[in-house]
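Backbone-to-sequence.
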């Protein structure tokens, strides 16, 4: 006789959770993020894997949490994982990540010595044929995921905080923050003794022409160098 209970006992818990979410179908509502009170990055990272606070935390893509040393003196905060990051489960490993790594190499800043994360931990996309196209985050996406980011900041306690792009900057410095006018300025924030906002590496890749891209690349490199010198 077929023993259904015995069969389910053999299925890994994460697979059962994915099956449950698939059966529920797509969601549109937002929930409170289940962020634990902890001083451990590994505990926080493990807890984030089962977060379903936003509609994007569905069964077909994963949480992409921050990576880097707990005692890192500098933290970089981007926007959200992209298609490559979602598939690999690591932040800044796609085209923008390659640009980011190239600049770090240029100024001799070891990627393994910095903490890199995103304001939002899930990839928000829209299917266009077989392609998953990046979608702009809204305030609910950012605020729902913000407790994870704030807890990362509390644990790492970076001396220098660098926000990459407008989304990360507005998330941590306020909705009135304008990267076009405040970029490259170092100031003290609620999150670090030294804070700075600069272009997101993807903005360099989307530059309308080569002249603009070279200018933005110089500005981006100068801003990261300025932040690095504060350590």
């Amino acid at each position: 006789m077929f023993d259904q209970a015995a069969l389910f006992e053999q299925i890994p818990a994460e697979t059962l959770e994915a099956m449950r979410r698939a059966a529920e179908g797509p969601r549109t509502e937002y929930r409170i993020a289940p962020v634990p009170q902890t001083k451990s990055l590994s505990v926080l990272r493990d807890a984030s894997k089962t977060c379903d606070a936003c509609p994007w935390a569905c069964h077909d893509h994963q949480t992409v949490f921050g990576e880097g040393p707990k005692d890192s003196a500098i933290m970089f905060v981007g926007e959200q994982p992209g298609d490559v990051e979602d598939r690999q489960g690591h932040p800044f490993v796609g085209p923008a990540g390659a640009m980011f790594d190239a600049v770090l190499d240029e100024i001799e800043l070891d990627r393994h010595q910095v903490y890199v994360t995103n304001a939002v931990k899930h990839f928000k996309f829209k299917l266009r044929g077989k392609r998953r196209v990046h979608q702009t985050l809204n305030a609910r996406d950012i605020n729902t995921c913000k407790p994870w980011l704030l807890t990362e900041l509390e644990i790492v306690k970076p001396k220098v905080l660098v926000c990459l792009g407008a989304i990360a900057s507005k998330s941590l410095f306020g909705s009135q923050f304008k990267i076009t006018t405040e970029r490259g300025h170092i100031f003290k924030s609620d999150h670090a003794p030294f804070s700075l906002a600069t272009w997101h590496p993807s903005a360099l890749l989307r530059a309308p022409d080569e002249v603009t891209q070279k200018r933005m690349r110089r500005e981006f490199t100068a801003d990261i160098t300025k932040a690095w010198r504060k350590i």
